[in-house]
Amino acid sequence: MSRSVLFDTETTGFEPLTGDRVIEIAAIELVNDLPTGAQYHVLLDPERDIPADSTRVHGITNADVAGKPLFADIADEMLAFFDDAPLVAHNAPFDFAFIDHELSRLNRAPLGRARMIDTLVLAKTRFPGMPNSLDALCRRFDIDLSARTTHNALLDCKLLAEVYVELTGGRQRGLVLETEQGLSFAHYERAANRIPRPMVVDEATLATHEAFISRLKDPVWRQE
After folding, report:
1. CATH number at 3-175
2. What mean pLDDT comes out for the span 11-37?
3. Fewer beta carbons under 10 A from the terminal one: N or C of the chain?
4. What does pTM read for this prediction?
């Protein structure tokens, strides 16, 4: 069983080194690249104003984060959900940079780039020269985008999880696994309930078998 975590952030802007902060974190657990239903989601007080331009992108206002926890308050629970799993994100260096900057403010270790799986890189490899934004990939894979009016981190995670399944072939692997499990259970159930039936062999078949084994050296049929 292979566990990974797919995550997304929303921020006050594009550059943590000039004071932009994380205001939303969402994460979804994957096992064998398929969502398990376990998720983590939190809105954060960035300790600064959210610019109107950023609000137009993700829909999060200053009022939405008023009274919400600080990153310092949730760092341990976020890291516990991440555990030591590989971390999947779209344009992952952006999200890693923001989370790592928040961790550095607390003198905590960064996430580690060795854990990074960037679905944007996967998409560019599979569809070179084509648009590979999350919206474009959802349209390419016929994934419903009707609820995505802004860049909500949790919704983006759920959409990206579907995209990631398509990019990695996870749906086919999951289908094969479920099919094999179903067939194995059905086969076991039939075998457990099967009633033995005697096999009646006619004289001609017995004679043919006897002639065949007579040509063999020390056949097992004649060993006691």
Report:
1. 3.30.420.10
2. 96
3. C
4. 0.75
